[in-house]
């Protein structure tokens, strides 16, 4: 990824589903909203697969079994194998298995899915610090108790290696916003003074790294597919390269930031949390390589904006420029290319030390 006059946006030579071998798709806000499919999502995923792209679904949710998520996606008409669902529980268990010997006791605070993944990773899940666990994995589930959190704190104080599924401070529930896994983790950190060694969830990039390993290990390959795996991990397992993997999400502070941290190019879709204004105001580490209205962008060619001068960027036939009274104007507020041009201009202004508070930003109807 070249961070130059294009203000972090990248060019694609052809459709993204042809330029990249693996898509790392976030779920909520990208593929579905609750029990309903996001418009164009299923057909776009199918078309990407026809172009030869592998699909992995990534989620910070540590409580839902892979089979349950796969079944939901299949109800949208998609063909999905459970191994394509990468949960933070799966990643956390595999992560811990690299730090402690096989068969080690691991204190688990989390739902049944997390317990199952720890056992599948060759470790022995326990619930008490009296079992002398060598590691702790702290996740989240609605029925968690103070007693369970206390066991985590006692084990960590006794020297157990401390891991967590994700650090999301909040979680949306039926009646509003509730404390998430990250808030519970902070309580343990406050009690012990010990920070987790690692987190499995986004915005850390571990989930994307594991997904590259898992698709290489599980997908049925023909001879041409095998040639794609030019890299191996430290354990000599085949792995799709970072350069051929694309992170796809709707959140700047999780999906896109995880991509930035791991060196992945990323596609932001505007079907979930992020709106055009948030994208215009994004800091460097939150800027995607590509942006599209929805997952149809996965099968489109993306042209990066071009700088005309210090106050003007173009993208395709669209233009963004600083007009009188420091107003950033675009020629087509209904066009995603205009948003790309406006972002390039806004980011360029910020990167040169200017504050967007001094500018009137354009409104988009995408």
From TrEMBL:
Signal peptide: none
Claim: Transmembrane is one of the keywords in the record: no
SUPFAM superfamilies given in the database record: HAD-like
GO MF, any single term: hydrolase activity
Entry superkingdom: Bacteria
UniProt keyword terms in alphabetical order: Hydrolase
NCBIfam families, sorted: HAD-SF-IIA
Name of the protein this chain belongs to: HAD-IIA family hydrolase
Lineage of the species this protein comes from: Bacteria, Bacillati, Actinomycetota, Actinomycetes, Bifidobacteriales
């Amino acid at each position: 990824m070249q961070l130059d006059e294009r203000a972090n946006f990248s060019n694609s030579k052809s459709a993204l589903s042809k330029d990249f071998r693996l898509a790392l798709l976030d779920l909520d806000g990208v593929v579905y909203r609750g029990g309903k499919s996001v418009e164009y999502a299923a057909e776009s995923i199918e078309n990407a697969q026809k172009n030869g792209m592998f699909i992995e679904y990534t989620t910070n949710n540590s409580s839902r079994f892979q089979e349950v998520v796969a079944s939901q996606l299949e109800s949208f008409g998609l063909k999905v194998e459970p191994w394509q669902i990468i949960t933070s529980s799966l990643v956390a268990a595999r992560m811990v298995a690299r730090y402690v010997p096989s068969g080690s006791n691991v204190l688990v605070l989390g739902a049944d899915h997390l317990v199952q993944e720890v056992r599948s990773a060759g470790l022995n899940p326990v619930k008490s610090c009296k079992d002398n666990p060598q590691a702790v994995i702290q996740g989240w589930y609605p029925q968690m108790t103070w007693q369970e959190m206390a066991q985590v704190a006692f084990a960590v104080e006794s020297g157990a290696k401390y891991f967590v599924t994700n650090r999301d401070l909040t979680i949306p529930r039926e009646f509003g916003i509730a404390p998430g896994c990250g808030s519970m983790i902070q309580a343990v950190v406050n009690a012990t003074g010990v920070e987790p060694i690692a987190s499995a969830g986004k915005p850390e990039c571990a989930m994307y790294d594991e997904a590259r390993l898992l698709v290489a290990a599980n997908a049925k390959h023909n001879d041409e597919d095998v040639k794609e795996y030019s890299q191996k991990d430290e354990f000599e397992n085949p792995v799709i390269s970072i350069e051929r993997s694309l992170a796809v999400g709707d959140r700047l502070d999780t999906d896109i930031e995880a991509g930035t941290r791991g060196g992945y190019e990323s596609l932001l879709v505007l079907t979930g949390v992020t709106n055009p204004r948030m994208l215009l105001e994004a800091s460097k580490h939150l800027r995607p390589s590509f942006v599209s209205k929805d997952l149809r962008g996965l099968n489109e060619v993306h042209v990066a904006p071009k700088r005309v001068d210090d106050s003007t960027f173009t993208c395709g036939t669209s233009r963004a420029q600083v007009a009188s009274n420091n107003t950033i104007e675009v020629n087509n507020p209904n066009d995603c290319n205009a948003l790309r041009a406006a972002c390039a201009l806004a980011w360029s202004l910020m990167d040169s030390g200017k504050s967007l508070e001094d500018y009137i930003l354009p409104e988009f109807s995408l």
